[in-house]
From TrEMBL:
Cited Gene3D superfamilies: 2-enoyl-CoA Hydratase, Chain A, domain 1
Family: Belongs to the enoyl-CoA hydratase/isomerase family.
Annotated source species: Durusdinium trenchii
Coiled coil regions in record: none
Organism placement in taxonomy: Eukaryota, Sar, Alveolata, Dinophyceae, Suessiales
Pfam families the record matches: ECH_1
Record's protein name: Uncharacterized protein
InterPro entries for this protein: ClpP/crotonase-like_dom_sf, Enoyl-CoA_hydra/iso
């Protein structure tokens, strides 16, 4: 299947606004229901019942997934304790910038302008490691600095494209990352780098189209689901690969996957640990278009981003999703950190050292 003409965008603004209103009403009704249940539990039992272990990672309304707990949690205390410790230099020092650029950002001279974000680590196939993710966050800082210094509307991007240099967008996390000189345990943890860089894409506050090329495994799929739309190459594939390695979802994958394909399909996709073709992921609703090859995939993603940027209502697509939950993010990061230390995060057939 080759990329063709997409659906008309005439009613896109109306559909986006209707979706935003529906999401806001849904969140308000869910919060009201949770308040009533909480007051009922306090009245009947004198105190709220303790949640089961692991319910924070389930894609269900066990507690508020869009609010931050004012009193904190054990997971947050654990990360604070690691960050402010002797081993982590109390968060004051860490590894410095690397000479080789792992990420790069380009601003197209088109009208409207589009920001091109590219993972540029060909020798590692753009696998996620603390160095690449930290460089991506520095790129986001440069983007914000560009907005503060820009005085012309022609230099202000209205949409963005995320792609990878080489044959793959991102085959997931690097299970054998090389710690740079001066790295601390907190910097090497997922909560400070590997997970945070994907969520900082939300700071763009503009529609983001992800060009999926090659094999997207685990973290590569999680990164793409943080964008607004996705385009995949015809020979591309998507796999989670977490079950066979004893890993857990990160980068809000436990939240985004049920939102895109539904709870039943999300559980089936995750537990089967299978590899899905481009046609399968499009049928599931994870991608919107399929292109013939890598170059056409990136060109299609750029054209789609320009189309979204040209309509004022289409830019409101980033407001459809509710605010991300800091508690869920910290729980996911703690889960993958625990799996890497105590679980079986290795390739099938290979013993863990």
């Amino acid at each position: 299947m080759v990329a063709g003409k997409g659906a008309p965008f005439q009613n896109y603004e109306y559909l986006i606004r209707a979706e935003i209103d529906a999401r806001r009403r849904q969140i308000a009704d869910a919060n009201d229901q949770l308040e009533q249940e909480s007051h009922k539990d306090l009245k009947d039992n004198g105190s709220r019942k303790r949640l089961l272990i692991g319910t924070g990672l389930l894609p269900s309304q066990y507690h508020r997934m869009t609010d931050v707990n004012d009193v904190g949690s054990y997971t947050r205390a654990y990360w604070w304790g690691m960050a402010h410790s002797w081993q982590s230099n109390f968060g004051l020092e860490g590894f410095s910038e690397v000479e080789e650029t792992k990420c790069r950002a380009l601003l197209s001279p088109t009208s409207p302008p589009v920001m091109l974000l590219e993972l540029n680590s060909k020798h590692t196939f753009n696998m996620l490691d603390p160095v690449l993710c930290t460089d991506f966050m520095m790129m986001m800082d440069a983007y914000h600095m560009h907005l503060t210094r820009s005085t012309s509307r022609s230099h202000t991007p209205l949409a963005a494209v995320l792609q990878g240099a080489g044959p793959h967008l991102c085959p997931g996390g690097n299970h054998h990352p090389v710690a740079p000189a001066g790295a601390t345990p907190f910097q090497m943890a997922s909560v400070a780098a590997n997970s945070l860089f994907a969520l900082r894409m939300k700071e763009l506050c503009i529609p983001t189209v992800v060009a999926i090329t090659g094999n997207a495994i685990g973290g590569g799929v999680a990164v793409s689901l943080n964008g607004t739309e996705r385009v995949i190459a015809q020979n591309g594939s998507a796999a989670f690969g977490n079950l066979s390695r004893g890993a857990c979802p990160i980068m809000m994958l436990s939240k985004h996957l049920p939102q895109h394909v539904g709870l039943t399909a999300a559980i089936d996709i995750y537990l089967t640990d299978s590899t899905f073709s481009a046609n399968a992921v499009q049928k599931a609703g994870m991608v919107s278009r399929i292109a013939s090859d890598i170059r056409t995939t990136k060109a299609t993603a750029l054209a789609m981003a320009r189309k979204l940027a040209s309509f004022p209502g289409a830019r409101l697509a980033v407001m459809v999703q509710p605010p991300l939950s800091a508690e869920r993010y910290e729980d996911e990061a703690y889960g993958i950190y625990t799996c890497s230390r105590l679980g079986q995060m290795h390739f099938p057939g290979q013993a863990k050292a």
